[in-house]
Design goal:
This protein has about 375 residues and is mainly α. The protein is built from 14 helices and six strands. Strand 3 and strand 4 form a beta hairpin.
Length: about 375
Amino acid sequence: MGTPQYIWQHDRWTNFSFDAEKLLQPLAAVRKIQGRRLGTVEGLGFDDSLRASAVSFEEDAMQTAAIEGETLDREGVRSSIARHLGLPHVGLRPADRAVDGLVQVLLDATRNYNTPLTNARLCGWHAALFPSGHSGFHKIIVGAWRTSPMHVVSGPFGKQNVHYEAPHPEMLDDAMALFFQWWEESAAAMDGIIRAALAHLYFVTVHPFDDGNGRLARCIADMALAQDEKTGMRFYSLSAQIMAERELYYAVLERTQKGTGDTTEWLLWFFGCLERAVVTADKTLVAILQKTRFWQLHGDVVLSERQRKVLNRLLDEGPGGFEGGLSTRKYMGMTKTSRATAWREIEDLLQKKMLRALPGGGRSTAYEIEWEG
């Protein structure tokens, strides 16, 4: 075969090596912040936990697709998650089959983290991602290993840069059998965060499917983290942080896949990415708690369904609300009502001290949530 070019061409490449001394402090740091986050969410009630988890699942779905260059309909994603989690979804646009399939895979990987990961389950996930049997305009093999060579490339046709070549198709049955064996054995033998990082690397290196390997690798990492944290709730989005660091993600991954089996750099990046994902999610928890306090304060106030919908949209945006504030025109657009009705219902919310006018006034008055009540 000549000189190995990729990690999988080395003997015993799945005996992933790393410099434990270099990992000790970064792993302790991410463990500390992970523990603090889990302690915080334990103090939430069930409803707040579910809402916070729904926000994280929403970001996971949006960003794991964005990493692959796809833009999903956020309202459809939100609708699908709400429906599967038993949250209110009346008025939200239904998700299409592919979006709903992705949401179901994300939820299954995390909420059913103790269910064994098998060939059948993984192939079922893949089929859910591609319900039409196509990726874009290209027909692909769905729910089964690929039968063609796989190259990760960039650049225009004729001048393409090959970043990675995956194992040959005839190797996939054995490679995936070994992956499932590794997955089971590593659960008891390895630190959970290290296992999540290596599971991601392992799967995306084998690259068993025609498409969707990155999304599934991130789902598998999420499943490993759920097993480590022993919770089916998701309170941060690793995919959102990977999207924010996409160039570095691909660069570290490529260097590792072209290495000899040492995974220290990959693990260090993964630990840092996870830590930053948890820190970023603090903003989500703050918004959830503020929304809860708002409705605790105003829970007995009589409102129309339109008013409640607009308030929830504002609350979901956090303390800053909509850019430029809520205007009569925006209210009309969200509720599909007349200007007179929008103005009357905004005035009612002002009287009930649920909205307040932003400085400026006049015909272009804008409004925001009155947090003080």
